[in-house]
């Protein structure tokens, strides 16, 4: 995979050190805004990135990369992915895919029409611990309750209260707890159980953005609750309760350090089959394989999952009266 990195923010800085363990990925190019040009220049030098751009359209036209890693702010995903696909590039897009479901649907159709790989970078779907937990579901009896809480006080929330609106709290830029944190919970639940029958979102809304909220997902025989907050902080918890046993996840739903198996209050077992310390390692190993083999069957399967997640997001926004983007 010859990669053009679109973006130079936190996620890129976090990911780049990992690439030393990913020999199947060639860091071909990086594109940034003109404002971040010096930062991108420093990253390019440190990680041996051959091509550097401060103009995305120029980058797409001139780069030798075959794949674009879209790691720009949420509200730019749609435009960056569409331009990359139109330029004939495979695309890996950071979560959430887009702000609106219709935008995602358009991108999916375009990628499949052009026979290009399009994948969402969402860590938990590729973690070995997550796959082990999924296999364990058959042993815990009929699931009755799924509860997840990802609450993390944002270091930008104090500024928000003072009226300084940054992208993570800007509804026009896809900000808010649903898109930033609850997206991990939704991927986690939908990846295990598929599309729910009903979705409701009770959000705490300030200045038209959800600073926290409770998402409920009705699966008929069982119910799931996904809580996320950027205005409070507390223990991150994820529990799946079956009639026989319960599974308790250790760590955030995007990292999933391990999980424990309980019967009532008795701990029966502990599972930790991490392959790598960095949460993004396993997804990029899989992305490289898919692109190398042009495995469109896996692409379609991954896009079907992302489709369900995007539908849940849109239903949640509609239910809460949120107008993002």
From TrEMBL:
Residues 2-118 form the Gfo/Idh/MocA-like oxidoreductase N-terminal domain. Residues 139-243 form the GFO/IDH/MocA-like oxidoreductase domain. GO terms for molecular function: nucleotide binding. Pfam families: GFO_IDH_MocA, GFO_IDH_MocA_C3. Gene3D superfamilies: Dihydrodipicolinate Reductase, domain 2 (3.30.360.10), NAD(P)-binding Rossmann-like Domain (3.40.50.720). It comes from Lactobacillus hamsteri DSM 5661 = JCM 6256. This is Gfo Idh MocA family oxidoreductase.
């Amino acid at each position: 995979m010859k990669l053009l990195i679109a973006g130079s923010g936190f996620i890129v800085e976090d990911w780049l050190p990992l690439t030393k363990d990913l020999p199947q990925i060639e860091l071909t190019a990086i594109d940034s805004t003109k404002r971040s040009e010096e930062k991108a220049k420093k990253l390019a030098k440190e990680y041996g990135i051959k091509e550097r751009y401060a103009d995305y359209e120029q980058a797409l036209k001139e780069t030798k990369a075959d794949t674009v890693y879209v790691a720009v702010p949420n509200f730019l995903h749609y435009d960056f992915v569409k331009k990359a696909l139109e330029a004939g590039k495979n695309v890996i897009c950071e979560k959430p895919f887009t702000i609106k479901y219709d935008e995602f649907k358009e991108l999916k159709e375009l990628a499949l029409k052009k026979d290009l790989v399009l994948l969402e970078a969402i860590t938990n779907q590729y973690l070995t611990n997550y796959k082990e937990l999924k296999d364990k579901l058959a042993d815990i009896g009929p699931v009755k309750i799924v509860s997840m809480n990802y609450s993390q006080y944002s270091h930008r929330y104090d500024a928000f209260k003072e009226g300084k609106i940054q992208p993570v709290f800007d509804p026009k830029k896809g900000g808010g707890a649903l898109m930033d944190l609850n997206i991990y919970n939704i991927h986690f639940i939908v990846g295990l159980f598929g599309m729910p029958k009903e979705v409701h979102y009770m959000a705490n809304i300030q200045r038209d953005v959800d600073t926290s909220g409770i998402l409920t997902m009705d699966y008929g025989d069982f119910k799931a609750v996904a809580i996320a907050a950027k205005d409070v902080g507390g223990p991150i918890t994820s529990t799946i309760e079956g009639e026989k046993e319960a599974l308790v996840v250790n760590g955030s739903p995007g990292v999933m350090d391990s999980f424990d198996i309980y019967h009532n209050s008795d701990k029966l077992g502990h599972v930790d089959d991490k392959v790598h310390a960095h949460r993004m390692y396993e997804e990029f190993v899989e992305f490289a394989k898919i692109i190398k083999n042009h495995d469109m069957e896996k692409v379609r399967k991954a896009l079907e999952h992302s489709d369900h997640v995007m539908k849940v997001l849109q239903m949640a926004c509609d239910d809460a009266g949120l107008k993002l983007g």
